[in-house]
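Regression test case RT-17, inverse folding.

Input:
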């Protein structure tokens, strides 16, 4: 597809999102003064919980890929994995075609850690696949868990505290099960994956077959723990949004909030802008209003959530990149393109 046609499609998609948001909001766009007043009335302890949930979420995104690398016999320290996560997230949020550039950066970092080209590509692909499955699992858990007569903010407190406790337990289990010595590479002894040739259907079938082949060669413990890390990652990010909403007195059903969150994450996968900037804000604001939030609190919650989950990551990623530059250089080989849903970062 030509670059001009891609640009036209992106602009058309952006217009669709903006029209849908305008239809939802109608003539009730939040007033700037009202939004600023609402920001000043935030409950600080909810914001502390939101920040803790988001930072812990980023750690589990790093641990997901670290666990996959370990399953293929490649070791990466936790601090380096976190630095890679912050850097690639900042790239994804700030650059045109940021997702592709971010994937290429992660591929080179995997190679630097000692992964072969095929192993690095397999980790990139499997990380995206497991992340997509984890998003559905997280949403299903929120919808299916019974809550009795709890209100939205009571559910939010239970969600945030439970996710932080679960995150700590999963981190401890992962550390306990981590190999103390480098493992033997899993993929290097197997035939190379089938080349993705032919039409789009043939390429999709070949990519699916290669992914399943790599998954079968991966130890079960590795991909199960990676899936758990990915689910915790999504759950903590939802907890950040829920805590941010509660900080501004938005008392909506957690199921409705999770539905808004899932919709926003799906919209974010459309590459209309770097990191979904602009698109995510509009979609999230429209979703919160449609869920029953007042316009001022909805705008304030949207701004703080995006600050914690996106905007603040850009300078932090730049700092993380300075630490990665001191390490060894990656071999110069072209990356393998991961699937579209490679996680929320």
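Golden output:
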């Amino acid at each position: 597809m030509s670059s001009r046609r891609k640009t036209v499609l992106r602009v058309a998609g952006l217009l669709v999102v903006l029209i849908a948001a305008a239809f939802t909001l109608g003539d009730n766009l939040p007033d700037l003064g009202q939004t600023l007043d609402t920001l000043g009335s935030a409950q600080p302890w909810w914001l502390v919980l939101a920040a803790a949930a988001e930072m812990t979420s980023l750690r589990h995104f790093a641990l997901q890929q670290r666990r996959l690398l370990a399953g293929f016999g490649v070791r990466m320290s936790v601090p380096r994995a976190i630095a890679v996560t912050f850097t690639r997230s900042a790239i994804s949020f700030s650059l045109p075609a940021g997702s592709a550039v971010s994937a290429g950066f992660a591929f080179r970092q995997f190679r630097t850690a000692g992964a072969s080209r095929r192993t690095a590509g397999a980790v990139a692909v499997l990380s995206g696949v497991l992340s997509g499955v984890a998003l559905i699992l997280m949403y299903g858990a929120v919808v299916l868990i019974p809550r009795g007569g709890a209100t939205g903010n009571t559910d939010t407190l239970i969600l945030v505290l439970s996710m932080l406790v679960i995150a700590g337990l999963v981190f401890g289990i992962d550390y306990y099960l981590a190999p103390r010595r480098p493992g033997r590479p899993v993929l290097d002894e197997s035939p190379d994956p089938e080349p993705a040739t032919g039409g789009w259907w043939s390429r999709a079938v070949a990519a699916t077959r290669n992914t399943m082949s790599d998954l079968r060669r991966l130890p079960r413990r590795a991909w199960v723990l990676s899936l758990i890390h990915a689910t915790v990652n999504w759950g903590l990010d939802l907890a950040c949004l829920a805590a941010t909403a509660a900080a501004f007195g938005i008392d909506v059903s957690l199921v409705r909030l999770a539905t808004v969150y899932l919709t926003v994450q799906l919209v974010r996968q459309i590459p209309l802008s770097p990191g979904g900037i602009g698109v995510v804000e509009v979609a999230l604001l429209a979703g919160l209003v449609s869920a029953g939030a007042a316009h001022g609190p909805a705008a304030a919650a949207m701004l703080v959530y995006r600050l914690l989950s996106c905007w603040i990551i850009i300078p932090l990623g730049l700092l993380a990149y300075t630490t990665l530059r001191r390490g060894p250089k990656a071999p110069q080989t072209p990356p393998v393109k991961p699937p579209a849903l490679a996680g929320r970062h």
